[in-house]
Amino acid sequence: MKIDFLLNHPGKVKEVSEMIYKEFVMKTGSNMDFEDVFKYFANTKDNEFPITLIALENGMCLGTVSIFENDLKVRQKYKPWLGSLYTKPEFRGKGIGQKLVEKTINVVKELGFNELYLRTEDASDYYRNRGWTYVESLSDDKYEKIDILTMKC
After folding, report:
1. 27, 29, 32, 62: which could form a disulfide with 91 (CB 3.0–4.6 Å)?
2. Cα dihedral 145→140→43→93 (10° resolution)
3. Locate the N-acetyltransferase domain: which residues (predicted)?
4. Residue 133 placed within a domain
């Protein structure tokens, strides 16, 4: 398996956009449409935000993760953020998500950051069990509780 920048695989932009649209956009009631998501991923970078990574094996995309400058408007002081971590269901439990996170941490460190943040509504224990540190919990207009966690780079 190889982790690489989506930028280097333009033929995978539609597939990544579909995964993220179904898993994160549709489920949150966002007013973004698929075309917005596609345009977003078609313009990700490899050395400035937003950055998207994909896990590839035998030419097949197994999962994805992105790095955003900010993923929570009420916490502008925290940056950058890990977001949209997704592994296709048939490939879960094989460490793909962890490898995507490890590569994300390395990319953030190479960009000169000492910390990486993430927000989660329901996976706090998953991240804490993998070394992430709890920062705070808060509410926003869509979710009752959001946990913010951090990882030193």
Report:
1. 62
2. 10
3. 3-153
4. no
Q: What is the CATH number of the domain that holds 51?
A: 3.40.630.30
- Cβ-contact 84, 66 below 8 angstroms: yes
- pLDDT digits 0-9 by tens, 46-96: 999 999 999 999 999 999 999 999 887 778 899 999 999 999 999 999 999
Which helix (H) or strand (E) segment holds residue 34: the answer is helix 34-42
Let me know if residue 36 belongs to a domain.
Answer: yes
List the Cα angle 138/142/146 in 5-degree steps. 30
Print the domain residue range for 31: 2-113
Taking residue 133's Cβ as centre, other Cβ atoms within 10 Å add up to 12
Q: What is the pTM of this model?
A: 0.93
| Residue linked to tokens 């007013």 | 31
